[in-house]
Each structure stands twice: as C-alpha cells, then as structure tokens.
Design goal:
Helix 5 packs parallel to helix 7. Strand 1, helix 1 and strand 2 form a beta-alpha-beta unit. The chain has 9 helices and 14 strands. It is of the alpha/beta class. The strands form 2 sheets. Strands 7, 8, 9, 10, 11, 12, 13 and 14 form an 8-stranded mixed β-sheet that branches. It has a 6-stranded parallel β-sheet with strand order 2-1-3-4-6-5, sandwiched between helices. The protein starts with a strand and ends in a 13-residue tail after the last helix.
C-alpha cells in the first residue's frame, strides 16, 4: 500500500526536487493539485488533510498558517521552512544526533526539516557539547560556503543570467548583520549559551557546501588533538548511513590537500573531515545544500516517519 504525499509549495526549489525524486517511487502516491487551484488555500488545505504525509515547502508565515489548518490526526507534516525548527512541539529532523533523536523522528507527527548550514554546524558541535568536550559557553565561530541554489529563485536567476555583473563571479559574504535565520536552531539544538559568530558565503557554483567550525584545543574542557577529535567523531557517528566521518588526513589525498565545497553535490550524505594539529583543530562538514541540506533530509525523515528503509530513494555514492 502506497503512502499518499502532498507537497504544498511544489514550485519552489525544494518542492520541485521532492516531486522529481518521489514520482518514481512505487511506495509513494503523489497527490497532484490542479495548476489553476494551486494558489487557492482551501484546495491546498483539502489535499493536505487527505494526505498521509505533507511537505510544507513554503515561506515561514504561510507554512505556519498551512500547518495550523491540517487537522487530520493521521497526517504527518514535514516542514522545510524555518518556521517550526525551534518550536517545542515539533521534532527536529536530524536523527543522527542520538538514539533519542532518531526515536523522536520516527514517532513524529510534526517534524521540522533542518536548515542546510545548521545541519553541518549541529553535526559538528552537538557531539562536543553533549560529551563535555566543549563547554556550552565556548566562543564558537562558523564559516559556511555554499552554492547559489539555496538562495531562492530570484537569486538563482541572477547567477545564471549570461549578462550578470562580474561580482556574481566572486565569493560574496552575506548576513553581515550577524543575524542569519539559521542561528536560533544552531544554538538551541546544540545547547550552547550564545549563538555562534556565523559568516556565510555564497559562491558561483550551483550546489554543495562546507561548514567549518574552528576550535582551539586549549579552550576545550577536554583538550584533544585533531587526530583525537576525528577518532571521537568516527565513534560517535559509527553506523549512521547518511553521515560519513572521513579518515584523518583524507583531504591530503586530493590535489593540494584541499576540500572543494561542491565535491559531493548530488549526494544525500554528509561527510565530516577533521584537519589541523595538536593546538588548532578544523572540523569541516561537507554536504549538498539541496541534498542532506534540504530535499534529501526531507526524504530521509519521511522514510523514518513512514517506516520505510531510511535511505530509500537517496543517493549515497556518486558515480
């Protein structure tokens, strides 16, 4: 028996990718909406209440309104917006964090899909804080480098315009007021005292990202070397199918010992690298902002909620 799925907001980047990826699955029945009625709230609400699973791929305010109108107790909601990521009655969809997080995802009726930058930051920082390796008041900083596909349709169009200005060809730092929308979930999910000093950078490639959280060993509660931290992450995420901790020094296998932000674009997993030395440590999370950072995570969470194989329909290895 197939699961009925309705995507509210299927015209956006995440919604389109979800529809493309789910349409070939035999265990999923996508519920279409008449193109003439897609902006009619009553029709979207009607379909939502008939579905087993609803993906909300909407801006924050419409997502809150849409969620409030889904009254069918059997309908599971997976919200791809920022609207519910810190709400106390919604489950945060990053099952790799712990057995408790995974159990909560499996039993969730209302599930918030994580932000792309937040996924990398939380995956690196949560294990440190929960084990007491880093104190909750550690002065965390974070740099995120991402392709332009996560910036929305208007910005995508500007980057892909053949007559674009030259500055679109350069990495561009943004959120200069240090109030990026992912900060609340980055702080709450890791349990840190203050939000991190976060600097995101958009670049001239379509998809992929790295999230870097530099650490000073002398400021950690349990000082360790880069090699020690890699071993800890490897043990912590052992058995997780969507998170792969790379061997220490794995980046040295590439030309010039570099890590490219779009190296696993098209994949639905996240790689964790640890670089550095005894005093300065550089944990790096690499993922596709449209994969594990968006639609891939949403499908993984749907699989868990519905009792499917966790990685069904997901890309784990690139050709």
């Amino acid at each position: 028996m197939s699961v009925k799925v309705f995507i509210d907001g299927a015209e956006g980047t995440t919604g389109l990718r979800l529809a493309e990826r789910l349409q070939s699955r035999k265990d999923i029945e996508l519920m279409p909406i008449d193109t003439k009625l897609r902006k009619l709230e009553s029709e979207r609400t009607r379909l939502s209440n008939l579905a087993d699973v609803v993906f909300l791929c909407l801006p924050d305010a419409p997502a809150k309104e849409a969620a409030a109108k889904i009254t069918n107790p059997r309908t599971k909601i997976i919200d791809a917006s920022t609207a519910h990521r810190t709400a106390h009655d919604w489950v945060y969809g990053l099952p790799e964090l712990s057995a408790a997080h995974r159990s909560a995802v499996k039993g969730a009726a209302h599930l918030a899909n994580p932000g792309c930058y937040a996924t990398g930051f939380i995956a690196l920082v949560y294990p440190l804080v929960c084990a007491g390796i880093a104190p909750a008041d550690y002065p965390f900083t974070c740099t995120g480098i991402s392709g332009y596909s996560g910036a929305g349709k208007p910005m995508i169009a500007k980057y892909e315009d053949t007559a674009r200005a030259d500055y679109y060809k350069s990495p561009r730092q943004y959120a200069l007021g240090l109030s990026h929308k992912h900060l609340p979930e980055m702080q709450k999910l890791t349990g840190i005292t203050n939000p991190p000093h976060f600097s995101p950078i958009i670049c001239d490639f379509y998809a992929g990202m790295t999230v870097t959280v530099p650490l000073l060993s002398r400021l950690l509660s349990k000082p360790m070397s880069a090699n020690n931290l890699q071993e800890y992450y490897a043990e912590y995420y052992n058995g997780q199918r969507a998170v792969k901790v790379m061997d220490f020094g794995a980046q040295d296998a590439s030309e010039g010992a570099m890590i490219d932000a779009n190296g696993i674009a098209g994949s639905d997993i996240m790689e964790i690298y640890v670089c550095g030395n005894d005093e300065q440590i550089l944990p790096i999370a690499r993922l596709d902002n449209l994969g594990k950072g968006a639609s891939g995570a949403a499908i993984q969470n749907m699989n868990l909620v519905c009792g499917f194989d966790e990685m069904e329909g997901l890309v784990c290895e690139l050709n």
